[in-house]
Amino acid sequence: MKAVKVKVNIFGRILILVILLLIPIIVLYSYSNRIAGNVVGEQIKSSGLNQLTFFLYQFDSVIENLSMFPVILGQDPHLREYLDKTGAPLPDVLAEQARITGKLGLQSVSSAWSNDLTVVIPGQSKVLSSNIYVNGSSQWSWDGAVRSVWTYEEDRSRGHPTGSFIREIAEPANARRVNQAISLFQVRFPVQNIQELLDLYKKDKAGDPFLYRQGQDPIRTSTPDTATMQPIIMALDNLDLNESGQERVGIEGQQVLVSYVRSGQLGGWYLVDYAPVGKVLAPITQTRNLFYISVGLLLLMSVLASFLLYRNVQIPIVNMVRGMQRLQLGDLTARIGYRAKNEFGYLIRRFNEMAEQIQLLVEDVYVEKIRSREATLKQLQSQINPHFLYNSLFFIINSAMLDDRDSVVAMSQHLAEYYRYTTRVDNQTVTLKDELGLIGHYLEIQNMRMHRIEYEIDVPDSMMEEIVPRLIIQPLVENAIVHGIERRTEGGRITISREQDESYNRIIVQDNGAGLTSKELHRLLAGLQEPMTDRIGRGTWNVHQRLYYKFGEGSGLTFSEVPEGGLKAVLTWNRKHNAKDPAVLGTKGAEGDRSAVDRG
């Protein structure tokens, strides 16, 4: 049973093509969107924790500076003198106390945070402080514990409760209660300092930072978001917190990334901040949804466009394809009778005109081929240099009269090989080996006639199988002899060498003959790009054009001066380029001649 072959029309093909184009776009976008979301999420985590750590470092630095105030007070010489002096008159004592109180005030205002510095002398029940509500008072918790680390408590000295952090240093240092100490130095700062710093950190951020310690009310900003903060505090109460970390907390269906860092100064207190991940990623999510909606609309529009193409394009194309098929089968009389009412009507009319022109051109080509073959034969016949042949035959006659049998045989063999090669017209491309073989015969003929020519052919076997146009080197060698070496009584030397790289082959024909002037060389190079004239000469123009048309851009003939005298001709052809047009190659190859190159 034969399988049923399903033929898809243009409508189905366009629809399948659109879907196939959209699939990789959707997959790639979904992948990139997911990667972007992950990257943004990681950046939020890293950035939030890093910013919080840096902020806490500044926070702890200020508190650490405040921690040094009691130490500085304990070393003050005037305070030490006051504590050690006994039995002084009351006016002196009062003056000394006023001076110490002034120093406490100056030391207090030296910090960016508002704070109170207090000196307590339990033995005399005296209290000296920068806080005017405490200074000079004898009311103190004399049997209370010495708070050697930062401790949070409410300060009621100003008539209303205010949260404060307190730290004390006692003398001697091993005193654990106030009444056991000779003196006590205290620093206290209100939580308003922390609130102002948190307000500054909160600015331009989506979160709401706060200071947290398990079992105590958090220290919030001046405008706290308690609805969001309360679930976070409850979640933190149930966690075993490390020095720093991050946790995700769900609040009203949204994920919140909570970052926390433990304070190095305020034992047990954590600086906490949060970022609503959903809000941060909302633009990415909206862009993704917009993309999917756009893809859906694009697919719908593609279906509509495919249907219109099927309706308005399919029928005209079918008629045009049938007409082309008839033309392809050789029916040059094929014409399309269908008349379209859109742009295809113009194409069909042009197709009919094109078919008619093709029919006329094909008929003209047959005639032109006959003319081309006749011209090629005439060109080859005209290029057989009669003077070269006459001179060679006279050499054979003279050698025979002198009974020089070896010279007669050698000249005859070389001359026969030379003309057998140059008159062959069946194949216009040969190997480099065959072409150099012709050059060897030609140079031997010229050397036997003049006895003034030295030559060297330095081309490796690896290049011998390269394909070149027939008679592409011989015109340059003849040019070197006739216009370069033959004019010199002492003769000369011709060197044929090669260069080869990944892209190009080069054959270099160099002589030490008369050479050209700069003006003559410039005129010769410029003439290679012009249509052939009697002034330019057929040999150079043919060689250059044949190489260019066979091997393409970068191929051709160039000339340059030799510093020691003479002229260098370089044949260059592209190793990887095929012939542009076999017909052109054949025509140009047939025009290749062995006439001397006009250097003038």
Automatic annotation (TrEMBL):
InterPro entries for this protein: Bact_2-comp_sensor_kinase, HAMP_dom, HATPase_C_sf, HATPase_dom, Sig_transdc_His_kin_internal
Domain HAMP: 311-363
Claim: Phosphoprotein is one of the keywords in the record: yes
Keyword set includes Kinase: yes
A Pfam family of this chain: His_kinase
Record key words, sorted: Cell membrane, Kinase, Membrane, Phosphoprotein, Transferase, Transmembrane, Transmembrane helix
Cell location: Cell membrane
GO molecular function ontology, one term from the record: phosphorelay sensor kinase activity
PROSITE patterns named among the record's database cross-references: HAMP (PS50885)
GO cellular component: plasma membrane
Residues annotated as transmembrane: 12-31, 290-310
Primary location recorded for the protein, binned into one broad class: membrane
Entry membrane topology: Multi-pass membrane protein
Protein name (Swiss-Prot/TrEMBL): Sensor histidine kinase
Native species: Paenibacillus hemerocallicola
